[in-house]
Every structure is written in structure tokens, then in C-alpha cells.
Amino acid sequence: MEGRQRRGGNKEGRYGQWEIPVPSKETLDFLRELVNQREAERCVESMAEMRKTYRVQRSELLLAYLLHVNEKGEEPGVFSAFDLSGASVKGLKAVGTDEGKVDWRNGRFEGANLTGSDFRGIDFSGSCFDNAILDNCVFDHCVIDLVEGKSVSLVGTIFHDCDARSAYFSQPAVYRCEWLRSGEKDRRFKDSGFNGSGRKIGREIGAGKKSNPIPPPPPSLQLF
């Protein structure tokens, strides 16, 4: 009886405790071929349903697959309404294709750790980044219209040539954050310490401390 209970129980809870490595590119390629050859429409619908609610491991594996499909450049990836609340998914790389921007509208990133991620040509319209960690991230030619980010961490973050007409970051932790050709930063950051020149003042991390001049970004982050 005890063994039977051990094998049964809450499968969802046990699944979250499994240490599942990110599949290799070869495995992801094989999976992509299976999806294309079989009931592709049904698979796409299932993945759309899976994106709605964050599940430990399952959501990360789905994200790895979608990023791989997007990397192949056959068509823009679809990440809309993806719930990654609380996930630790550092070092992501997502790039739009010639056909258009990657659809990541209405994403949920509350409390997520996206440190070191590189987003280029992504539509994040209507997404929520409350309490998210976006340190050392790059947002290049992205749409962040109607984006919210209360208490978001923006340490070394770069925004370049983004559509941020209605982006709103309330009380973010800001340090060496670059806001380049993306509209008026004063209106996007409330109580952040940004002034017109973008230098450190007020509530910004490290305010009041003597610091060295801000160095240029490393070569890998040079945008122009």
C-alpha cells in the first residue's frame, strides 16, 4: 500500500521536483519535425493552452522549444500570453524575423529572473514585469507599449530604439540603465531617479555615493 501511494499521489507536485535538463538542439529539431508532420494544428492549440499557466519545468521546456523554433527563422515565434511568473530563465535570446516581430504580447513576467537576456524585434505590448529582474538585458527594436513594471530591477539594462509610448515603470531599481532613442524616459519611470540626462540621482541604486564615470557597454552589447 505504501509503495502504491508513493507511485501515485500528486503528479503535478512530483513533476515540479524533477530535474529535467534542457533538450539538445537535435532533440528539439526532432520534436519540431514531429509537430510539422502530424497534427500540427492540434499541437499548436495545446501549446497555446500550456502558455496560459506557469508550471515548473513544463513551462521552461515549452519556452526552450518555442525559442528553438523561432531561432530557425522559418516564421516568427508565438509566445503571446505566456505566463512565466516567478520563473528563472536567464540568458534568453529571441530575435524577430524578416516577416515581423516575435509575438510576446500580454506576457506575464511577475517576479521572473531574465538576467542577461537578449530581446531584439519582440512585441511585448501589454506585458507585466512587476518585480521582475531584467539586469543586463537588451531590448532592441522592441515594442513595450502598455507595459507595466512595478519594482522591476533594471541594472545595466539597455533599451534601444523601442516603441514605449505607454510603458510605465513604477519605483524600479535603476543603475546604469541606458534608455536610447525610445522616447522620453522621464515619463516612463516614476520615482526611479532618472532625470533628463539619464544620470544617477535620487532613488536610483547607489545614489549619493561617489562613483566612476559610466563605461560604454561591452562590444557584445554595442548597438550602433
Q: Can you walk through the features of this model?
A:
This protein is α/β, with parallel strands linked by helices and 224 residues long. It has a domain of 132 residues: Pectate Lyase C-like (3 Solenoid). It is built from 6 helices and 11 strands. The strands form 4 sheets. The chain has a 5-stranded parallel sheet with strand order 1-3-5-7-10. Strands 2-4 form a two-stranded parallel sheet. Strands 6-9 form a two-stranded parallel sheet. Helix 3 crosses helix 5. The N terminus and C terminus are likely disordered.
Explain briefly what this protein structure is.
Helices cover 24% and strands 13% of the residues. It has 224 residues and is α/β, with parallel strands linked by helices.
Fold topology:
Layout: H1 2-7, H2 11-15, H3 25-37, H4 40-50, H5 58-71, E1 93-95, E2 102-103, E3 118-120, E4 122-123, E5 138-140, E6 153-155, E7 158-160, E8 169-170, E9 173-175, E10 178-180, H6 185-188, E11 189-190
Parallel strand pairs: 1-3, 2-4, 3-5, 5-7, 6-9, 7-10, 8-11
CATH class of one domain: Mainly Beta
Q: Give the proportion of residues in helices.
A: 10-25%
Helical stretch tally: 6
> In sequence order, what are the helices and strands, one letter per element?
HHHHHEEEEEEEEEEHE
β-strand percent reads 5-15%
CATH architecture of one domain: 3 Solenoid
Beta-strand segment tally = 11
Helix/strand/pairing category: alpha/beta
| Main sheet record | 5 strands, parallel
Any low-confidence stretches, pLDDT <50, length ≥5? Answer: 1-10, 193-224
Indicate the radius of gyration in whole angstroms.
Answer: 20 Å
What does the overall shape look like? globular
Overall average residue pLDDT: 77
Q: The CATH topology of one domain is what?
A: Pectate Lyase C-like
Lateral arrangement of strands in the main beta sheet: 1-3-5-7-10
Query: Separation of termini?
Result: 66 Å
